[in-house]
Design a protein that fits this description.
The model is unreliable at about 90-95 (pLDDT under 50). The chain is about 50% helix and about 15% strand. Helix 6 (about 100-125) crosses helix 7 (about 135-145) and helix 6 packs across helix 9 (about 165-175). With about 425 residues, the protein is an alpha/beta fold. The protein has helices spanning about 5-10, 25-30, 35-45, 50-65, 75-85, 100-125, 135-145, 150-155, 165-175, 180-205, 255-270, 305-320, 340-355, 370-375, 410-415, 420-425, 425-435; strands at about 210, 220-225, 235-240, 245-250, 280-285, 290, 325-330, 360-365, 380-385, 385-390, 395, 400. Strand 10 (about 385-390) and strand 11 (about 395) form a beta hairpin. It has 2 domains: about 30-205, MutS, DNA mismatch repair protein, Chain A, domain 3 (Orthogonal Bundle), CATH 1.10.1420; about 210-405, P-loop containing nucleotide triphosphate hydrolases (Rossmann fold, 3-Layer(aba) Sandwich), CATH 3.40.50. It starts with 6 loop residues before the first helix and ends with a helix. It comes from Chitinophaga pollutisoli. This is DNA mismatch repair protein. Keywords: ATP-binding, DNA-binding, Nucleotide-binding.
Amino acid sequence: MYLQTDTQTMEDLRLFSKADTQGIYDIYNQSFTRGGQAIMESMFKKPLSDRTAIQQRINIISAFAELNATFPFDGATLDNVEKYITYDDNLDGGSKVTLSEKETQNGIAAVVRLFHTLRQYVANGELGGVPELEADRMAVSVLLQDPAFAPVFNEQPDARLSFGAVTAFDVLIRVKEKRKVLELLRFIYHLDVYISVARVALQHSMVFPKVHPKGTAILHVAGVYHPLLKHAVPNTLEMPPARNLVFLTGANMAGKSTFLRSFSTAVYIAHMGFPVAAAAMEFSVLDGVYTTINLPDNLGIGASHFYAEVLRVKKIALELSAGKSLFVLFDELFRGTNVKDALEGTLAVCSAFTNRKASKFIISSHIIEAADELRKKDSAAFYYLPTRMNGAVPEYTYTLQEGVTNDKHGMIIISNEGILEILKQGNKGGKRLNKQL
């Protein structure tokens, strides 16, 4: 069972790199193999929504972390094996690729070395400390004992193969037993992912979350921070079963969007069974995660920003009405309309959200008037990110506090930049500005 999410959420959380911007995937991906990288990418696109599956993956990765495991296979050997075994798959429908005699010989020699290393690792390696992989270890052992592979183990790993041996091995590996070889490679690719993520957990002092059953409505993240920020300020937010909506306020530049991304990323990554950038985390398994941080206008259907927001809320409402338990985040809900409509819309939607006890909602807003009405809801909580004034200069703590703030420093920032003075000076001021730029 996979967690429901969408492209908007993955782009909001910047899971994958874009242009020169690093993605969350890049932090976790220390894989040695192309196959491992492909599996890692698939895990990022398809988080889990089954508690047993999530806990199993957590147990596997944390066991490798405790063992301080290292990947036992040589990257160059695996590159040669991958190139050799998959070169004629022709998945994209393009022209067939052929390998030279030398490339074929190198590929087969790499397969022989890989088989010897894998047999030794399965028999004597670290897998004994990972109970969840015992069934896979046994299955690999059985495959390696297949009489068809006896000629492979009769060869020494670094022996020079004759032309006749190369021809015979080519038929054996790439034709007769290719499916079994690919099964062994898939096992190695998964090892690559588990071990690389375990090493990331150790390098970045990440923690493995505690997983609660679906429907228990627990969400507690302590000391959460954004893994892409060098000097991130950690924050703690607890949403017990009795609290399902957080109303977040704060001035522009106070750190709302960064906190929202940090918290949402932890929720998303936890459903992958990966370690998270936090001091501690507990969560109940959810059916879906949907965020709305950078919602673009949908010009393709002639939709304004406001209408795009309405369609986004409608999509989530339909999921909730189907009985799904969701984590939902809106950064400045209904920012695309006037203040009156934004207030009425925010109140109506947030009030409806508070009745969905199995789901969790975080709504950031500048419409602080909505807080007065929402305080009547027992399941609503209120937090803000404060601003302190140092003379005429706003300073930000980036530390979450309980309550509501009316901090607004937009005009102060505009004034500090001298924009109005520049505009008053006319063409002369424009020339001076061009020089400064």
